[in-house]
């Protein structure tokens, strides 16, 4: 009896659909999206679309057999994903180890896993085609009529789960990206009914065509060059490289903080302390994204917890310093975020960048989006 019979083939194909579509897309959609609140960017959606195409083609093969058009759909979907995933990951390839967007699984950020998934699809389909001379597989490819195959209980479960995941993704896409002419975002906020939609992507067509897209940087400053750039430099040699360099501070006294610092989900420990001589205040950071502003006696003035799962990957915040009134905090992976006091805080930006805020604080580095 041949191993590659109808029963075993259907089990392998159903398992492939489960591993390519239901499990990875389901985890990204339900756990990362609805539970953690991580918002998928436009390229995340494009990666998911490729997995959905491959998975749906696999479902059609389960139902109607191994037809050439379904094989082509699997290969086209995998080819699309093999292009789209490295394109997505390339935005962070220049960063150091551990730096990137969103969370990671086994050390690899979620948007890089598609590289493995899509290549596995191609290799698996190639291995299947090695059995094309088997009469069961060859019979499906060569037949001209449509054969409706019976589904096992396992296949029905996988198909039902996959269709649920696809529907759930459609709902999530509507919430986060909106309907045309709105589109996905490169740096989205967390999944919520408070999401805003943007149509700013269409402005890219107003720019001259370039193979580097939006990745055009301004020419650097070169002393003596008659070139006007946006960043101004002090060209007086007598000013020196540093201003007001002072000797290192020595510890005069120490005592425990009168409050407990907390980061996202109530986690983390106190990790950074900065002093603002301008107004005699302190800034304190927590390893999980909590920042606190206090007076000279360490009485809390305001605090906020950044939306860590969305945006740049802040592994653990380890140090803080004041730049003016702005408290800049850096993670051990050299990724930074900044918070500053503000009189009039935009309600959307407060919600967009903070999971919690006592008020009077805003992210110093905001991204403007069009709201409806």
From TrEMBL:
Instruction: Tell me what topology the record assigns in the membrane.
Output: Multi-pass membrane protein
Please indicate which superkingdom the organism of origin belongs to. Bacteria
The family database entries (InterPro entries) matched by this protein are listed as: DiS_bond_form_DsbB/BdbC, DsbB-like_sf
Q: Which GO terms describe its biological process?
A: protein folding
User: Can the keyword rRNA processing be found in this entry's annotation?
Assistant: no
This entry's Gene Ontology molecular function terms read:
protein-disulfide reductase activity
Q: Which UniProt keywords apply?
A: Membrane, Transmembrane, Transmembrane helix
The protein's name in its UniProt record: Disulfide bond formation protein, DsbB family
Source species: Campylobacter showae CC57C
Lineage of the organism? Bacteria, Pseudomonadati, Campylobacterota, Epsilonproteobacteria, Campylobacterales
């Amino acid at each position: 009896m041949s191993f590659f019979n109808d029963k075993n083939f259907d089990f392998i194909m159903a398992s492939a659909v489960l591993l390519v579509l239901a499990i990875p897309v389901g985890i990204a959609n339900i756990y990362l999206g609805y539970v953690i609140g991580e918002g998928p960017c436009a390229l995340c959606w494009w990666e998911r679309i490729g997995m959905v195409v491959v998975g749906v083609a696999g479902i059609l093969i389960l139902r109607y057999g191994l037809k050439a058009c379904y094989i082509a759909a699997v290969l086209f979907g995998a080819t699309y994903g093999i292009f789209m995933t490295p394109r997505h990951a390339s935005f962070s390839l220049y960063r150091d180890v551990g730096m990137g967007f969103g969370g990671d699984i086994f050390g690899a950020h979620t948007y890089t896993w598609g590289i493995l998934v899509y290549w596995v699809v191609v290799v698996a389909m190639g291995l299947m085609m090695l059995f094309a001379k088997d009469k069961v597989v060859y019979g499906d490819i060569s037949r001209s009529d449509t054969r409706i195959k019976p589904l096992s209980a396992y296949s029905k479960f996988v198909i039902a789960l996959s269709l649920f995941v696809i529907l759930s993704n459609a709902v999530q896409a509507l919430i986060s990206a909106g309907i045309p002419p709105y589109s996905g975002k490169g740096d989205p906020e967390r999944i919520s009914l408070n999401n805003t939609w943007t149509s700013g992507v269409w402005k890219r067509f107003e720019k001259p065509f370039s193979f580097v897209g939006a990745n055009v940087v301004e020419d650097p400053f070169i002393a003596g060059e008659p070139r006007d750039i946006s960043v101004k430099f002090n060209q007086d040699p007598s000013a020196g490289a540093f201003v007001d360099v002072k000797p290192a501070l020595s510890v005069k006294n120490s005592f425990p903080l009168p409050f407990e610092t907390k980061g996202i989900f109530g986690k983390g420990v106190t990790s950074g302390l900065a002093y603002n001589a301008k107004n005699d205040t302190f800034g304190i950071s927590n390893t999980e994204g909590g920042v606190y502003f206090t007076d000279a006696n360490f009485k809390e003035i305001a605090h906020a917890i950044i939306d860590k799962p969305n945006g740049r990957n802040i592994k653990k915040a380890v140090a803080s310093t004041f730049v003016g009134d702005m408290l800049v905090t850096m993670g051990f992976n050299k990724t930074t975020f900044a918070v500053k006091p503000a009189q009039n805080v935009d309600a959307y930006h407060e919600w967009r960048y903070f999971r919690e805020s006592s008020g009077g604080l805003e992210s110093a580095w905001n991204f403007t989006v069009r709201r409806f």
